[in-house]
Amino acid sequence: MKKSTSYFIYIASAACLAGCVGEFVALFALGAQYPGYNQLKDTMSALGASISPVSDAISLWWCIAGILFTLYGIGFRMAFADKGRYALVASVLIILYGLGEGIGSGAFKADHVMGGSTISSLIHNTLGGFGVAAILAFPAIMPKVLQAKKGSAFSRFSNIAFVVGILSILLFLFRYLHNEHNFFVVYKGLWQRLFMLNTYAYLATIAIITIRNNRQIVTHK
Q: Which of 60, 93, 114, 201 could form an S-S bond across to 134 if both were Cys, CB 3.0 to 4.6 Å?
């Protein structure tokens, strides 16, 4: 492996870790600047709507985060180039997440007019949905990339991340019931943050594994 490639992998992995940590910092720091915003009851998209006082700041961050995750997707492919098609699929999933849930969500605001969705909101939700679907599948692919044995610690960890991701998204989708008194609808923000915590804990773990794998290759070269 070329030194330039190795350095890029380190940078890309660090970018992923920065994106994971930065997402929580941005969410809670900017959420505190929005009077009446409730982390457990309000969606993250509400922070980026035009009526939000932190709309431009959070949208900018989402675009930056998207770039960071896209960068990692490229670095991931370089780091696991010898793992074949599964590594390629995994890298594409990361890139789709960065482009959809990151850049796509940041570039298009989730605005509503007269109770209905705007074109910007529809694009926001569509691109974000593609990104979420991609990252949901990521834990199902990673054991194949790392050739983890069935029942191994990493395999179990990936299975848990996959199941928690699916469940948290299903709970989040209850918001479409439009029943403001339903517990699952009221706490839609909680389910979204559970998904976020699960996703970034898993991504950060993979980024660390990528760094270690790259270090071992460089050491034994």
A: 93
